[in-house]
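hey
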């Protein structure tokens, strides 16, 4: 285990926010966690498990606690049948690299999640989703270290309580665990998921849809919509896309016909949050340091030198404007630290 004090977090978050951690641990093995918990003075401090830092916003200049940087690596084949392969993936693996690994091994299911930044562990916490697929559809189980009883536990898919950008790791197990690995069930048979409008349009004209073709199409769509965080710091979608009831949707259609809504399988209607933000004029009203992407107003950007508090204040301004104009409450997808 390697640890540092007074550690700069600027290179550990994709918003490129300047912040420091009192203590910064790099965790590569189970033994590293055992070593950490033996240091009582650190165990008594606030702690933050950090993957690739692609879904966090540091608001304060200093995290007065311990950052546990997930560096666990490795992909193991667990079992195989005629139709499926089960893989156990260390939580510190880069998620998009895992998707690429699967496709090269002709294992399918994750291709629609191509290009999503972050670690495998962070992907589970967030239950990432895109272009008609969600991670919960691939997860068999999750192995985690419990800081209360100092044991390793495994919970199945149902125990993860997956929801829209949600899981048990954001609630009952929040700040209590360190995800060590995720077991995925991948298919040997490819079934394209191309119902998403923009993806369907991008693939028009192809008689045969291969997994790699779909991956390339999705990567190109993401590249067009999401600015490179190395140029303009961002964490992708800042807010969740809100759901409204059928009654609320009927009222919205009458009062605001410009708002596009999409009916879900459960009868609720989903509204693209970026659309509401755009309609409220935020593409035209950046500050010197914070703005939204012209390609997708759902993405808040550090235009250069922004402080975390400035980005949060801008997000609050957006949230207030959308609520006042459309009566819709936006919830952040990004974790505020």
């Amino acid at each position: 285990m390697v640890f540092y004090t007074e550690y700069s977090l600027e290179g550990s978050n994709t918003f490129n926010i300047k912040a420091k951690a009192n203590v910064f641990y790099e965790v590569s093995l189970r033994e590293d966690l055992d070593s950490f918990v033996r240091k009582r003075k650190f165990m008594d401090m606030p702690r933050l498990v950090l993957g690739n830092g692609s879904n966090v916003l540091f608001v304060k200049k200093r995290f007065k606690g311990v950052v546990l940087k997930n560096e666990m690596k490795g992909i193991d084949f667990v079992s195989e049948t005629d139709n499926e392969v089960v893989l156990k993936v260390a939580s510190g693996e880069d998620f998009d690299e895992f998707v690429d690994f699967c496709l090269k091994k002709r294992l399918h299911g994750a291709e629609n999640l191509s290009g999503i930044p972050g670690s495998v562990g962070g992907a589970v916490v967030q239950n990432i989703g895109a272009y008609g697929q969600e991670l919960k559809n691939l997860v068999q189980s999750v192995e985690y270290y419990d800081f209360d009883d100092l044991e390793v536990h495994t919970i199945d898919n149902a125990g993860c309580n997956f929801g829209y950008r949600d899981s048990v790791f954001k609630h009952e197990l929040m700040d209590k665990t360190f995800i060590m690995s995720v077991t995925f069930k991948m298919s040997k048979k490819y079934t394209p998921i191309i119902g998403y409008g923009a993806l369907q349009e991008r693939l028009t004209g192809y008689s045969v849809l291969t997994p790699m073709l779909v991956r390339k199409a999705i990567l190109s769509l993401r590249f067009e919509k999401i600015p490179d965080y190395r140029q303009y710091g961002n964490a992708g979608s800042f807010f969740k896309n809100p759901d409204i009831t059928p009654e609320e949707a009927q009222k919205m259609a009458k009062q605001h016909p410009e708002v596009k809504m999409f009916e879900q399988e459960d009868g609720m209607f989903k509204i693209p949050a970026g659309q509401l933000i755009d309609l409220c004029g935020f593409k035209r009203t950046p500050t010197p340091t914070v703005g939204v992407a012209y390609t997708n107003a759902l993405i808040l950007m550090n235009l250069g030198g922004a402080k975390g508090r400035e980005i949060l204040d801008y997000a609050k301004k957006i949230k207030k404007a959308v609520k006042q104009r459309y009566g819709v409450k936006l919830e952040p997808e990004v974790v505020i630290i």
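The longest strand covers residues 177-187. Residues 308-326 form the longest helix (19 residues).
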